[in-house]
Amino acid sequence: MIKPKRLLSLLLRFIAFGTTLAAVILMATSHEKGTFFAVSYEAKYTDTPAFKYFVIANAIVTVYGFLVLFLPPGSPIWRLVLALDLVFIMLLISSISAAMAIAQVGKNGNPRAAWLPVCGQITKFCNQVTGALVAGFIALITYIILLLYSIYNFLNPLFEKA
Amino acid sequence: MGLQNEEKLELGCSSSQQRSKKWVLLTVRVIAFLATATATLVMALNKETKTLVVAMVGSTPIKVTLTAKFQHTPAFVFFVIANGMASFHNLMMIMVELFGQKLDYKGLRLAMIAILDMTTVALISGGASAATFMAEVGKNGNSHARWNKICDKFETFCDRGGVAIIASSAGLILMLIITAMSIFKLLNKPKSVSS
């Protein structure tokens, strides 16, 4: 039968895969068209390189998460998975940080640089982007929990139990 | 008594190879500390004042003095704080390596160093990426959001910001190498002999 440790690890990896997938889908399908006093505007995620980077980074991590779900428990590739987990956590952090920086300017504007906040006109787009960022954040936290759990399991035999 | 045997085992294994590894790690830490400290200082002292002519009233120009400081952008503030904390972490690790060989807590010293190194990598990567994308918007503007670029007016500000971001990226790569080395040290530490 499946050991509880393996079940917990599998569950965490499934949650991580699901949330990265949700982040990608939410961000990629966010677009809004409208008219504002006879000026037609369109907001898509491709308008900002930060959001494009967010989609690409989360897509890479989704594919990785999907592949790792099918890894058999005893294989020696798990050491590589541990290292790759760290690399992908770094990728996730950088993508969320970048998207959040741009989203913050979009929501609050930057009066010193004469950049007006744009979320007032494109509320649906902004809400969906916020949802994508939240999903990305949950994915990041899940991956960090996974990494700590893997390190704990790996190091446990090395510790001298009193 | 068992602990003394373990210490002797560790010291006995410490060949010149392990000592040179220790010095390599220390050197890379010093370089990473210099990189992140440079990034912090250059961005923290990043300030440019410029007087622009806004309009002409008759024949007298109306001048406006504008200042560009790093505090205006939360992304740059995060960048400065993240690189500052990374420099502090590297400094602490160098001190512990040089002067605090006896510091240990239930045998968790190497694990703590590895985990702290990982969190520092995360911090630096977040700060560097946020600052990079904010700098990209400042340099190229964003036509869809009607955000004008500011780098053509505040060239020195943008240049210094770029230097800080490059230094931080170099520090990030070095921190990655350091983390890999710390994890390697952790996994290869001599296994304690249980009674």
> Largest interface, by Cβ-Cβ below 8 angstroms: which chains and how many residues each?
A-B, 38 and 42 residues
Assembly annotation: heterodimer
Distance between the termini of chain B: 11 Å
What is the helix tally of chain A? 4
The coarse silhouette of chain B is: elongated
DSSP strand tally of chain B: 2
Strand arrangement within the widest β-sheet of chain B reads: 1-2
Structural class of chain A: mainly alpha
Strand segment tally of chain A: 2
Major beta-sheet overview of chain B: 2 strands, antiparallel
Which strand order spans the largest sheet of chain A, edge to edge or round the barrel? Answer: 1-2
Assign a percent range to the helix content of chain B: 55-70%
Identify low-pLDDT runs of chain B: 5-10
Largest sheet of chain A: 2 strands, antiparallel
Gross morphology of chain A is elongated
Layout of secondary structure:
The complex is a heterodimer of chains A (about 160) and B (about 200).
Chain A: H1 4-28, E1 31-36, E2 39-44, H2 49-69, H3 78-108, H4 123-155
Antiparallel strand pairs in A: 1-2
Chain B: H1 2-13, H2 16-44, E1 47-57, E2 60-69, H3 74-99, H4 109-140, H5 155-187
Family (chain A): Belongs to the Casparian strip membrane proteins (CASP) family.
Keywords (chain A): Cell membrane, Membrane, Transmembrane, Transmembrane helix
Subcellular location (chain A): Cell membrane
